[in-house]
Amino acid sequence: MLSQKAKYALKALLILSERPADVPVQVVELAEEGNLPRKFLELIMLELKKHGMVHSQRGKHGGYMLAALPSEITFGDVVRAMDGPLAPIPCASLTAYRKCADCTNEKTCAVRIMMRRVRDAASEILDNTYLSNMSSDGVEALSDQLVSA
Amino acid sequence: MLSQKAKYALKALLILSERPADVPVQVVELAEEGNLPRKFLELIMLELKKHGMVHSQRGKHGGYMLAALPSEITFGDVVRAMDGPLAPIPCASLTAYRKCADCTNEKTCAVRIMMRRVRDAASEILDNTYLSNMSSDGVEALSDQLVSA
DNA sequence: CAATTCCCGATAGGATCAATAGACAATAAG
DNA sequence: CTTATTGTCTATTGATCCTATCGGGAATTG
After folding, report:
1. Which residues touch strand C (CB under 7 A)?
2. Would the Cβ of A43 be found within 7 angstroms of any atom in strand D?
3. Average pLDDT in the A2-20 region?
4. Are residues A10 and B111, on separate chains, in Cβ contact within 8 Å?
5. Measured between CA atoms, how close is B35 to chain A, in angstroms?
6. What is the rounded distance in angstroms from the CA atom of residue A98 to the CA atom of residue A68?
7. Which of B14, B100, B122 is nearest residue A118 as measured by Cβ atoms?
8. How far apart are alpha carbons B9 and B42 in whole angstroms?
């Protein structure tokens, strides 16, 4: 499941992607344009900042700016930052592997093998799509995307 | 995330897949062989029965049996029965679509488009792999599987 | 009838999630 | 320098779900 947090984060970052890179956008503005709960979004932006994905400026005319180009930030980056590993089960995760308590022979565990495949498929999609691929300009070129994917 | 429930269900069903189809297997036996919590597994087997995936027999020498051939039950069936839709977000689900409260224009929502792709990829994997593909016999033929997948 | 085994309801602790409130800190503008 | 603005941070809340267990009831076999 994708959390609300991750969904809101993605929406906010996509909004930022369509703005000039050097003009800070306030949380209130992000919340209104994205139809997102303001206070909750504050937390989220803060967390994105801690992950180095956005910069912030305080005081009047302050706000948030992307810390990298929209063509450098993937959906996978954002989802992992907010929700943790893509793998449906820890024993199938690359970035946060953890053994199942109940597992006896991991090498042949069908569940793990299958969930690893699911993880790989999700990664293939999310780690190869950048914010720039999906901003309103980008979405127009979507039919091309779908063919190549 | 795959719940413990779904994981246990899959493990139990895989055990049943390797037994003669007409001999009931008791919950205790499934729990021991699979290293699963017995009481919890009782609930799970019951739920699997309600979903028509297993039959049960009461009384002495009772237990559970698969309601279909291992070559007829997919991982997707089991995961959906236990955890609900595969889609990471309801608005991207085929089987249990629900609109996001905050969404304004669904057609162009990047989050939805991406999550739909993830859903499709997971479905492609889980709905095309059967219990029989992953029972201990099946796992030997795995390298073939991987090539074709 | 007695033993066995599934069936079922209740429940409990814990974790996580979604969201808000309210005070504090930095910055810009006048 | 003062004031308004806006990000920063901590705490807290309610809700929901997850995992798991307990204990007894109902069916079936021998």
Report:
1. A 3-5, 8, 37-40, 42-43, 57-62, 83; B 24, 26-28, 42-43, 45-46, 49, 56-64
2. yes
3. 97
4. yes
5. 6
6. 31
7. B122
8. 10
Spatial separation of the C-alpha atoms in residues A86 and A125, rounded to whole Å: 11
User: Is there a contact between A2 and B115 if contact means CB atoms under 8 Å apart?
Assistant: yes
d(CA A121, CA B126) in angstroms, rounded, equals 11
Tokens 């994997």 — which residue? B125
Phi, psi dihedrals of residue A63, rounded to the nearest 5°? 145, -160
Query: What predicted TM-score, i.e. pTM, was given to this entire model?
Result: 0.92
Please spell the DSSP secondary structure of B75-114, one letter per residue: HHHHHHHHH--SSSSGGG-SSS----TT-S-GGG-HHHHH
Q: What is the pLDDT of residues B39-55, one digit of tens each?
A: 999 999 999 999 999 99
The tens digit of pLDDT for each residue in B59-90 reads: 999 999 999 999 999 999 999 999 999 999 99
Q: What is the mean pLDDT of residues A52-73?
A: 97
Residue-averaged pLDDT of chain B: 92
Domains parsed from chain B with CATH numbers:
4-66 (1.10.10.10), 75-138 (no CATH)
Query: How many residues can be counted in chain A?
Result: 149
Separation between Cα atoms, residue A73 and residue A144, nearest integer Å:
20
Q: For residue B7, which residues of chain A lie inside 8 Å, CB to CB?
A: 89, 100, 111
Identify which of B35, B102, B134 has the shortest CB distance to residue A35: B102
Question: What are the CA-CA distances from residue A42 to residues A9, A50, A66, B87 (Å)?
Answer: 10, 13, 15, 27
